[in-house]
Amino acid sequence: MKKVRAHVIISGRVQGVFYRISAKKMADRIGVKGWIRNLPDGRVEAVFEGDEDAVKRMISWCWVGPPGAKVISIDVEWEEYLGEYKDFKVLY
What we know:
The protein is α+β, with helices and mostly antiparallel strands. It is built from two helices and five strands; from the N terminus they run βαββαββ. The protein is 27% helix and 41% strand. It has a five-stranded mixed β-sheet, covered by helices on one side. The relative contact order is 0.35.
C-alpha cells in the first residue's frame, strides 16, 4: 500500500465540539499517524500520515467530525511522506 502525507486545514464550527479528541480516536482506530491542533482563528490544522486509503478515510471523516461540528471547508495539501510519526497526537 502506498504511504502518503496530507496537511489539512478544517474550517467551520470545529472548536469547542471535541473535534480534536474525536479525530484522535478515529486516527487511532484506522492507523493514521500525525497530529491535530486548534488555530487561533478558529480553524483546525492537522497532518495525517499512513496508508493512502486510511489517510483518505481520515479526510472524509473530517467533513463530518463529531456531533456539534459544522464543517464548511477543508483544504488538503498533499506532501511528501516522511514517516516521522509513531502515533497520533492532539497538540495544545
